[in-house]
């Protein structure tokens, strides 16, 4: 099947439930992203800053770029002019840098707090208690150029669907509690970003509002090593 056919399948499946489809375009060439764009896709997710910066410069300006990978503070400045949503915010320090760079660009940047829900040591994220601690911090209250619009989580890499279901459910329950406690009057706090190609159906059942699907849309990834010229800055 073509990229357009794959995209149509997933869009009809998840968007009928009001869930946003993020086409994960990391390592994909410009031509493949354009094929998805011409088939109606507007939200694309990238893991690496350098790659996203290069692609943003070459592609239509009505694309919503989501940074879904781990973000280092020293690279925020490169995406601050255009990024639509940063999914993996896992510290107050990172939020403060995003706020600083957003202010320089006269923008408010939407962010998701990444919550650690997996039974693995390799995942990033805040613990449930750390999220509450961050939201209560006076330094957080002073940030005016970021907006927390929800939570993000990555489930354990396992075929045990029961475990994945429990992890996604725990995040949804936590989201509901955070909403009541900290964001009751803010309609913008509404997003839960969970679910990828292997587990997106479970994620949607457990309340996800965004799913991140890549290879199932684009096919096998072409591995390309992007230049690291900005990583030294």
TrEMBL record:
Claim: DNA repair is one of the keywords in the record: no
Annotated transmembrane regions: none
Keywords assigned by UniProt, alphabetized: Pyridoxal phosphate
Modified residues (N6-(pyridoxal phosphate)lysine): 26
Domain of life: Bacteria
Record InterPro entries: Ala_racemase_N (IPR001608), PLP-binding_barrel (IPR029066), PyrdxlP_homeostasis (IPR011078)
Pfam families, A to Z: Ala_racemase_N
Family matches, as PANTHER family: PROLINE SYNTHETASE CO-TRANSCRIBED BACTERIAL HOMOLOG PROTEIN, PYRIDOXAL PHOSPHATE HOMEOSTASIS PROTEIN
Family listed: Belongs to the pyridoxal phosphate-binding protein YggS/PROSC family.
Protein name: Pyridoxal phosphate homeostasis protein
Organism: Pedobacter jeongneungensis
The organism's taxonomic lineage, starting at the top: Bacteria, Pseudomonadati, Bacteroidota, Sphingobacteriia, Sphingobacteriales
């Amino acid at each position: 099947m073509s990229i357009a056919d794959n995209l149509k399948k997933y869009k009809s499946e998840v968007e009928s439930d009001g869930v946003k489809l993020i086409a994960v375009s990391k390592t994909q060439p410009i031509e493949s992203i354009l094929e998805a764009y011409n088939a109606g896709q507007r939200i694309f997710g990238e893991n690496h800053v350098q790659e996203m910066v290069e692609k943003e410069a070459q592609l239509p300006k009505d694309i919503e770029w989501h940074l879904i990978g781990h973000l280092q503070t020293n690279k925020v400045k490169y995406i601050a002019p255009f990024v639509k949503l940063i999914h993996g915010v896992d510290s107050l320090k990172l939020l403060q840098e995003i706020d600083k760079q957003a202010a320089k660009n006269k923008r408010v940047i939407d962010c998701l707090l990444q919550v650690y829900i997996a039974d693995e040591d390799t995942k990033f994220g805040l613990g449930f208690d750390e999220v509450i601690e961050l939201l209560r911090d006076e330094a957080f209250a002073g940030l005016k150029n970021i907006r927390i619009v929800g939570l993000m989580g990555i489930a354990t890499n396992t075929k045990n669907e029961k475990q994945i279901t429990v992890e996604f459910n725990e995040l949804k329950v936590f989201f509901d509690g955070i909403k009541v406690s900290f964001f009751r009057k803010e309609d913008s706090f509404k997003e839960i970003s969970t679910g990828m190609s292997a587990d997106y159906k479970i994620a949607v059942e457990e309340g996800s509002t965004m799913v991140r699907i890549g290879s199932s849309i684009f096919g096998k990834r072409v591995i390309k090593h992007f230049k690291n010229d900005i990583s030294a800055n």
